[in-house]
Design goal:
- The chain is an alpha/beta fold and 102 residues long.
- The chain has one domain: 3-Layer(aba) Sandwich (Glutaredoxin), CATH 3.40.30.10.
- The protein contains 4 helices and 5 strands, in the order βαβαβαββα.
- It has a 5-stranded mixed β-sheet, with helices on both faces.
- The radius of gyration is 12 Å and the shape is globular.
- It comes from Paenibacillus motobuensis.
- This is Thioredoxin domain-containing protein.
- Pfam families: Thioredoxin.
- InterPro entries: Thioredoxin-like_sf, Thioredoxin_domain.
């Protein structure tokens, strides 16, 4: 299960993280978001990936604006305080696993 974090927690991680991390932006009533979360859980169970957490976009307005997130689900990878990649189309477990390799 993906760990839910707050906008404040994510900003702290984002600013101090030396290693790569990912975060899934979602909304609770989004069916595609639920599918994306399930695919990410499968990838994480297989192992060998960077850490992934999730955040409800409704409670992260500043990050949504700063990172120009235009839709959900959105998977963001950041490292050492910088946004590295942003992905909206989460096609398959295999694609996600390759994208999230350590």
């Amino acid at each position: 299960m993906l760990q839910e974090i707050s906008e404040k927690e994510l900003r702290v991680r984002w600013e101090r993280a030396g290693s790569r991390e990912a975060v899934l932006f979602y909304t609770p009533l989004c069916g595609t978001c639920k599918l994306a979360e399930r695919m990410l859980e499968i990838v994480l169970e297989a192992g060998g990936t960077i850490p992934v957490s999730k955040i409800n976009i409704n409670y992260a307005p500043d990050l949504t604006q700063d990172w120009q997130i235009s839709s959900v689900p959105a998977l963001i990878i950041f490292q050492a305080g910088f946004l590295v990649q942003k992905q909206y189309a989460l096609h398959s477990v295999v694609d996600l696993q390759q994208w999230l390799k350590q």
